[in-house]
Amino acid sequence: MNDAEYYHKSALLIAENIRGHGWSAWSIWSVQTNTGGNVAVLAALYAIFQVDPALVIPVNAFFQASSAFLLLLIGRELWPGRAGNIAGLVVAVLFVVFPSSLSWYSQPLKDCYVITGMLLILYTWLKALHSLPEKGSLAALLAWMWLGILLVAFVKLYYLKLLLVVAGMTACLVAGHFLRVKHPQRYRVLFFYFVAVFLIAITLQIMLPFVKEHSEGYAVWTPAVIDTTQAWRWQESPWLPDTLERYWETVAKTRAGMIEHNYRVSAGSIIDAERAPQSVSEILLYLPRALQIALFAPFPDTWLQKPSLVRFIGVCETVLWYCIFPGLLFALYYRRTLAMAVTLLFAVFFMTVFSFVTPNVGSLYRYRYVYEFMLMVIAIGGWVQFFLNHPGKKKRRASEACPEAFALAESNNLVQHRDTKKNLISVAATVSLLTLIGALGFFARDLFMIRWFGAGNEMDNFCLGAFHPGRNGNDPGIFCITECFRSVDTGKSYRFSSAFFVAAACLSLYPFVFSGALSIFGVELAL
């Protein structure tokens, strides 16, 4: 039983309790099923409407669109002007169109909540480096950041511990930077970051009982035989305090438990199963290898193993990432800023941690997804800056040769781009309207095919096949459709199609709603 099927059955159980005992039986973090907010949302939908796993699609589509929009904003925070707009837009499009993302926003998994929460937290941290002089911006950014923290805790409470660590590291990084650079708003920025650490610590303290109840079970795994040769046993370090030693032991024990679990279920994409560090020094020595796996797995020598269509899709995504990755070098050459350092620290920290505790490429593919796209924003911006650099040199040479003509051209450009914001809103409205009309047209086409040609089952199967590209194989990035979702094929096709259409309509109208909300708190939407 995989995660999606387990969450579906847990939601059914909670929904039955709600019908039998009222809404007092509903809770965000269920002790009965040991599940989080994603199951609570699904159970509430099951209790209000009929039982249909497709009901979660509009909710996940909203968070998926929110994440793409936040990536666009992060791109504009990391890169100035044209480079930021292009990098943010390209990454947002890739985030939405990558087929592997269908494996979680089409099923009741936790990833959509976590991805949106993490991107919202990072965006507020970057925004604090640039926009705190405005009145009220500090409180607004802290409120948005706390919303991101709550989204993450809504489904994965133990992430609060990791967020506290990375927030402390980021605050130290910012403080060290301002010791060398005298920024006019450095005290306000430092105040924001230390308040951010305090907010995460307070949230963790309040939710600590729930964190202990709903923590991952691998850390309490009993040592078993790994690789059939030796038993895992933690070796204490005499130079490390016991309090810190326990955290390192928990991390190593979680990895050992994950290795044992993957062997037990015969997982097909285990990597470095023979590496189970048993001391702090062994953990530190393995971290570079963990980062390598996080950045580049699956490696080329595994691309042709067990060939299938879905594996081919995963390989194509990996090859594209390989092509984008060198842009990080250009980014470090053209723009070494504090915002860039904060993003790199945030992404690399989580990728390394998850790569260490997850010796399975399939699971790691999901866990690293959002952090990989954070690096993509930097890398694509580096490529854009590289290609824009040469026209810029030509422009400077032209200005030196004929300064009067260059000044006249610049003034004309200012006049032409004065109404950029209005043009942007007009174009966005046109695109959204055409998208909605197109969706209605496809819907009318489907009704015509069903009514006149009796192609109802064929159209349902086509829709399901397009919506679940990973249903007929195994791939590190895509989960196969489970038994509980196969029922949608026959008995619930109409409700599934309705939910799919509502999700498409929400996606077409979403940018106006969310961008309007963000603009209240000082986000500039003009290009």
Summary, kept brief:
The chain is mainly α.
Keyphrases for this structure?
527 residues; mainly alpha; two-stranded antiparallel sheet; 22 helices; 72% helix; globular
Question: Overview of this structure, please?
Answer:
The chain is an all-alpha fold and 527 residues long. It has a domain at 1-51. Helix content is 72%, strand content 1%. It is built from 22 helices and two strands. The protein has helices spanning 3-21, 37-48, 57-78, 81-97, 102-105, 111-128, 137-155, 159-180, 186-206, 208-213, 242-264, 280-296, 309-324, 327-334, 338-357, 361-367, 369-401, 403-416, 420-453, 456-467, 483-490, 493-520; strands at residues 225-226, 230-231. Strands 1-2 form a two-stranded antiparallel sheet. Strand 1 and strand 2 (230-231) form a beta hairpin. The longest helix is centred in the last third of the chain and has 34 residues, at 420-453. The two termini are 48 Å apart. Mean pLDDT is 79; it is low at 224-229, 469-491 and 520-527.
Largest sheet properties: 2 strands, antiparallel
The side-by-side strand order for the widest beta sheet comes to 1-2
Helix coverage percent of residues? over 70%
- Count of distinct strands: 2
Report Rg.
Answer: 25 Å
* Overall pLDDT confidence: 79
Secondary-structure element string: HHHHHHHHHHEEHHHHHHHHHHHH
* Proportion in β-strands: under 5%
Number of helical elements: 22
Gross morphology is globular
Structural class: mainly alpha
Terminal CA distance reads: 48 Å
Unreliably modeled segments: 224-229, 469-491, 520-527
